[in-house]
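hiii so my PI (J.) wants the whole complex modelled not just the main chain, which honestly fair. so below is everything: three entries, each one labled with what it is. i double checked the lines twice but i was tired so who knows lol
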Amino acid sequence: MKKMMTYSEGIREGMSAAMRKDPDVVLFGEDVGMFGGCFGVSAGMFDEFGPERVRDTPISESAIIGCAVGAASTGLRPIAEIMMMDFLTVAMDQMCNNAAKLRFMTGGALHFPMVIRTAGGAGVNAAAQHSQSLEAWVTHVPGLKMVFPSNAQDAYGLMLSAVADDNPVVYEEHKAMLAMESEVDLDEGPIPLGVGKVVRPGSDVTIVAVGNMVHQALAAAETLEKDGIDCEIIDPRTLYPFDFDMVANSIDKTHKAIVVSEEVKRGGYMGEISAQISENLFDSLDAPVVRIGALNTPVPFSPALEPIYLPNAEDIVKAVRSQG
Amino acid sequence: MSIGIIANPASGKDIRRLVSCATTIDNNEKVNIVKRITKTVMSLGQDKIYFMPDTFDIGFMVIDALKADREDVSGLEVISMPVSGSLHDSVYAGEIMEQLGTGCIIVLGGDGTSRAVAKGIRKTPMLPISTGTNNVYPTLIEGTVAGMAASALTKMDNIEDCCIRDKRIEVYVNGALRDIALVDATVSLDSYIGAKAIWQAEKIKAIIATRCHPATIGFSAVPGALTIVKDTDDCGVMVEQSADGTGVMAAIAAGTLERMKLTEPEIIPVGGEKEMTFEETCMIALDGEREVKVKPGEKITFKIMRNGPYRVLTRKTIEKAQSMGLYLTD
Amino acid sequence: MADNKDMVKDLYLTMRRIREFETNAMNLFAEGKIPGFVHLYLGEEAVASGVCSNLREDDYITSTHRGHGHIIAKGGDLKFMMAELFGKATGYCKGKGGSMHIADGTRGIIGANGIVGAGQSISTGVGLQILLHKTDQVCVCFFGDGSTNQATFHESLNLAAVWNLPIVFVCENNGYGISNPQSRHQKIKDVADRAVAYGIPGVVCDGNDVFAVRETSAEAIKRAREGKGPTLVECKTYRQRGHFEGDPAIYKPKEEQEAWLKKDPLDKMSKWMTDEGGFSAAEVKAIDDQVKAEVAEAVKFAEDSPYPTPESGVEDVYSDIVEEVRDR
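here's the output for the full assembly
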């Protein structure tokens, strides 16, 4: 059954479906309970699942992730929310040294089926401590998986898979997209991790974009279509494991690649994808891969500055044109 | 005349925090109390105060804090002695302070600390402040008041009416003096010291007390359920637990009233003694802490004596000081 | 409790097992047979032995970088432990964790951990799991005095308190945070004093007296099992060695070291057993001999075991993804 749903509702439906199915799935984090989450993503879940399974934590990010690690290792499948991706830094030790590594370090004696939900991204004038995109920091750590949906359907399907996965999965939600509506079919079920999606088929250039940048890429493609340039847009949806085959197949056809993310350009995860394309597909390429990212500055607050910081459709159009 | 302060940093932290609802006083609060005593005593013109050294450095912390307040700390001295971190420190510090001729020793701790100091002194009056657990011997009084009483005592020619010479229980095993208790000696079915405190009523065989009252906390409250013996009475009391005895309830620990069956209380006059032997290995808890182990068949003798420490009667002392005009100024 | 000779024997057996394992680890490290960092539990045996003697097989523990004692006391297999110290394929972690990271999910050992204080927050999750599954299990979280200055200590005790989790926080106050004596890393002497800040009970016991540890932790564990929430139990003990093997520990005053060696928990216990506990010297020696044989067997098992294959080095990162091994 198809219906219109916001990105936020997609996330919530995913969590709720997982919790209805498995009593071991629990949600905890700062203000996720009666308050419904700082952005209202978990609104109503407290009423449906009760205070035992939808739990407010103190403002203690390190304990939130540590708690998820302990709970996951002994039989729960926790969804732990870190309100803002920026606050992952406070929980970095628990995420990187424990959640990510303990399966390996214990030779598989323990395993950690857990989801870390966190709201990333700029565009809401929240300044540099509430707006970052830290995909590179997460994907750099072996042992973590990471998903980043760009629409309600993916938000729903990726949540189901993230909760069902036996490994720690970081689930990034873009705060500027929460109210964005799109059509969802709840019967479609889980979207396997590591499977990308061709959002717009095309033949002239491959644009790999994640999160909110998918929408910027779509807008750019519309402009470029008028110039007679046919863009193929790939949303990998999962950053690790990454669907490189889908990208490779596309580039075999287009021979050009642009990679776009909202991270600061220096050291961003799209640099890694760019490097993989260059290493593996050099012979297919007619032009160097172009990376598009945010300015290499902290995210500025002022409505006059933030749009300058952020990458947008215009940047993508320019990049495609520059490739000739 | 000088004043001594013995503060036990280890008091008030043991298992009774779990098995009853006993008070917790953290060490920084003990520093605060000692600071209040010291300031009071200094304000009243005392020129010499000795502190026992301890593992938390309470004395040094007080001196440092007062120095930072620009007070004259030249009369404050932490006595020189090795620190073991055990109750022996309190015994030893008591001895040294008496040798130094202090006019009064203020003791911060529980029954156990008071007992230790009592073992080290003969004639110096002692003013026990409770920072421990289920105390009978030391009382909850404000450090300022304790300081006032101690200071007043040093200015009196005759202190007899401001102190009481306490009773004590001497514990002999096979005729040899092993230890003393100030308030109670309790025989329990244990074979090791372990967590020290005793709290399991069903293990108790016998209780000997220098005084007893139902309004106290600890094992002396048990005979207190049947009779009252005051600190001024020239006798002690003994009860045994017995299945066909009289059922009583008593506050053996803070917030913990236990039921026990007791024999008729036996009054032991001062100078009198009580002998017993048991078929099992037992521990004798002195003022609430397991201390003396007794093997099956060994002869235990408890003697009630009035040769304990001189304990300061705080209110009486301050009343006398007031009548002497010690609190009048120009 | 005390009249039970088997209980006494078990306590001593565990302590002796830890002592023997650690002494062997110390020597094998010196001989170069054990690589990496080894943090020994020598001198602290009474804590793990006393606490774990109150635990059931289905209870949980979290441990630290100085974790061998906890794991042995919770029933860890000496052979798999020693093999892990050697970095062998037969080790608990298949040679991928080493001394600081031994875990055994089947015995509720949710891992030693190389990050100081990490186990504190992990224990809250274990506690939450117990709470939600409504069992009467408990989780004991071991940590040292040094870790009580980590943010995790505060966050975890606070969380455990507000959620009323069935956790016993056991602080092994061994006097040092690496090279810093306690007086230089915190302005309190009794870590238990901090409990009041979280609204939970805090209690101190002699960590070198296995009976005191057993009795005190028994009450805390009982509280947790009965749903009365967490407790902070501080055991005063002493790290007889340096922070890790190879640390000459010149920062430890000689008199202090000597004073604590006189309070050695094993000496204290064996003396009690023969003097007061009704054990003959031969009975004690029989336990010592049994343990010597067990540890010797563990060392032989470790020495005879193969090193891990290159392929195994890329396994266990994920449950379902295996990277390719680099071709050498």
